[in-house]
TrEMBL record:
This is GH39. Keywords: Signal. InterPro entries: GH. The lineage of its organism: Bacteria, Bacillati, Actinomycetota, Thermoleophilia, Solirubrobacterales. The keyword Signal applies. Residues 1-32 form the signal peptide. SUPFAM superfamilies: (Trans)glycosidases (SSF51445).
């Protein structure tokens, strides 16, 4: 599927205008069905299966800047980040880190850098899944044989590590207007997705780790016609090896930020997310011949606190989303939820994703930090009995726990909406 140079260079504000225009023309909800080719909207389905515990996760690194290149990020403090991540953990509940932005363009040096990150987090007792981006090097766009080689090398290096918990192949291949964040801007992306998933799983089988999930994700959403063509093309190009290797489809959904570009009156963040999950499961995935044997994840979800958006509102939206995803998890086959991301790039910045973190750029927690920690404890999936082994021969990792001193006080306003008052602080180790 060719991607036009015009689409790649489209400024993000113009895309927002286009999405807003699309929102104004959207039809009222109808039941999602494969026959509705454009998959515009869906009623929330009846809850007809018990809710499942969710495997939670979070992206610990910087958010990608929307558009062609990466913007400035406040200086990072890995020790503070690890302490905050450990503060989110709940006893006997899984928490997976989503390590993003391993570009093909970064080559073997990028693979080594991600291996070092996975090792560092592993020594702290944290599991990681790896996002392997298509984002090709100069002159290699569309060379899928070379891309396959990169995926194989990445999996061979990272897959044997006990702290590596899975792989995501390509990022937002349906979204053609933001090359820094989304692989849909590059020619050959669907071939890269299909063949990348197949060879990643093949390498994991060789390594004796066929159980590690391999999947891909989509942005919610681009234009209905473009998204429908994307899924149909996946079905046309899908091989038996791809279908054998595919463990999950991830939804990357930002209600009020990307789609819909503004909050809809009377519709909660959770309802927006469940509608999107319903359309993915019951309208889009069937176009590619993907059924109930493929898990559905929320691989990214976040809410911003810049440009006049209050921090307590972020906490409310997060709570609404996770509780509704959990409620419909059995009905829609949802197994995983990932928040994006841990810390703001720039708490006072103007980019779309500058301030979606649970922490401000100085590592001080927002109210949503405590809310997510509580949700992990309430709704999270039990961790396996085996602890994560430190990476490397003879390595020893000191597990430093922060002390999180806070109270979360939920209440309802006059309209019955959930509100939160959070009082407290994150006490980091002295070395931070």
């Amino acid at each position: 599927m060719a991607r036009s140079r015009l689409a790649r260079s489209l400024p993000w504000p113009l895309l927002g205008v286009a999405l807003a225009a699309l929102a104004l023309t959207a039809t009222p909800p109808v039941a999602a069905a494969q026959g509705d080719d454009r998959c515009l909207s869906a009623d929330l389905p009846p809850v007809d299966a018990p809710a499942r515990p969710l495997r939670f996760g979070i992206t610990p690194g910087a958010a990608g800047t929307a558009g062609p290149s990466q913007g400035a990020v406040a200086p990072e403090n890995r020790t503070a980040a690890i302490a905050a991540l450990q503060g989110l953990e709940s006893p006997k509940r899984e928490l997976v880190l989503r390590l993003n932005r391993l570009f093909w363009a970064d080559g073997d040096e990028g693979i080594r850098r991600f291996a070092a990150m996975a090792d560092e987090y592993g020594r702290a007792g944290l599991a990681s899944e790896i996002q392997v981006r298509y984002h090709p090097p100069e002159g290699a766009e569309g060379d899928i044989d070379r891309w396959e080689g990169f995926v194989r090398r990445a999996v061979r290096e990272l897959g044997p590590r006990p702290a590596v918990a899975g792989f995501s192949i390509t990022n937002e291949a349906n979204f053609p207007v933001s090359p820094n964040t989304s692989d849909g801007a590059y020619d050959g992306v669907i071939d890269a997705l299909v063949r990348g998933v197949a060879v990643a799983h093949e390498e994991l089988v060789k390594l004796g780790r066929p159980d590690l999930p391999v999947g891909f994700n989509v942005a919610w959403r681009y234009t209905p016609d473009s998204d429908a063509r994307f899924w149909t093309e996946i079905g046309r190009k899908a091989t038996p090896a791809f279908r054998r290797g595919l463990g999950y489809v991830g939804l990357q959904v930002y209600p009020g930020l990307v789609w819909p570009p503004a909050e809809r009156p009377g519709v909660t963040a959770g309802e927006e997310t469940v509608e999107a999950l319903t359309l993915i499961r019951r309208c889009y995935m069937p176009k590619a011949g993907l059924g109930g044997d493929v898990d559905l994840w929320v691989s990214e979800n976040g809410y911003a606190t810049n440009q006049g958006r209050p921090e307590p509102r972020q906490a409310e939206q997060l709570d609404s989303t996770v509780r509704d995803v959990h409620r419909w998890s059995g009905t829609l086959g949802v197994t995983d939820y990932r928040y994006f991301n841990l810390r703001d790039n720039d708490s006072d910045g103007d980019d779309l994703f500058d301030a979606v973190g649970l922490l401000r750029d100085d590592y001080k927690p927002k109210p949503a930090y405590a809310v997510l920690g509580g949700l992990i404890g309430q709704l999270g999936r039990e961790a396996g009995a085996a602890p994560i082994a430190p990476a490397g021969p003879g390595s020893r990792g000191r597990r430093v726990r922060p002390r999180v001193d806070f109270r979360v006080l939920p209440r309802a306003d006059l309209r019955g909406r959930r509100r939160f008052a959070v009082r407290g602080r994150l006490l980091l180790p002295p070395a931070v």
